[in-house]
Amino acid sequence: MGTVEIFQRILYAIARGIYDSSMGFFNLAHLDKKIQERELQTPVRRQSSKKNEKSAEKSNLMQQTLQCCTLNGGIFLFSIVVFDFFILPVLGEIVKFLGTDRETWLWTKSLLSWTFGAVWVLPIFLLSKLINALWFQDIANSAYRYSRGRPVMMPSLSKTVADFLFSLLVQSLFLLQAMLVSMLPLHPLGSVLSMIHMSLLYSLYAFEYKWFNMGWELHKRLTFIETQWPYFLGFGLPLTISTSISTSFIINGCLFSILFPWFIVSANEAQVVANSCDYPMQLFMPVIAISNLAFNKTVGTGGNAAGANPTTAAARVQKS
């Protein structure tokens, strides 16, 4: 295979990933319509009253997605925007009109911002993260059950817990790795590498719900990300760009929570473009080694946690 053909296949996989991730709204609308049609075809549903039919016009999938958008965009993000771009400027004009000196206003502004953040933003942000985690899981499960049926459970509860904890550690370390590479002296290189890291991480976030329901263990999930990296780079790119608009971590977190449910549905319906590149991108290799070391010291040395390879997740592909 020539270099030009490889390059074309990589570009196609990236473009297809971008396209698939952008179809979240349409995929959700399609799934919602199909779920409603299935409900209407059941005997119990046909015998229900018109009142009950109206109350169930929207499926649980659509309701929870809209609830996520309402909580994170309509309430949380809106309150921050109103405070920063309306309340503070109005107060600033009032203070200026009253003849208060600039230093006093700057001190008052900082105090108001700190109070607003401590009393409203931080508690609501933490609460929304907890609620979002539950809603994200419900959205993923609803979409999966309709498209693929009953989820495949892991052999034991202990293995499920170990896989979850190890995955959480790997993702946290990978996020830290993304932050570190963004600090490289060569500015364009650091920014590009950080964007690649975040795109792959967001793809892992979105697809992990489906893969977990399919019974895939962590090493298989990471292997698939590493070997099919062009597609997942494209899939996570829109979310990476969208959550980099603001310099505020809180606002970017709100944007992520608003958009992420649509990406979960897109991931559930996506058909990954496979074998677009013969060279895996082994970015997870350092964090897997560190995670294995941490788990082995914590829970003993009876094997690698969650079956992950300490050298590279992509090595699993070479063995299969």
From TrEMBL:
Segments crossing the lipid bilayer: 68-91, 111-136, 157-180, 186-207, 228-251
UniProt entry keywords in alphabetical sequence: Membrane, Transmembrane, Transmembrane helix
Membrane topology field: Multi-pass membrane protein
One GO cellular component term: membrane
Principal location class: membrane
Compartments in which it is found: Membrane
GO biological process: macroautophagy
Family that this chain belongs to: Belongs to the EI24 family.
Protein name: Etoposide-induced protein 2.4 homolog
Organism encoding this protein: Cloeon dipterum
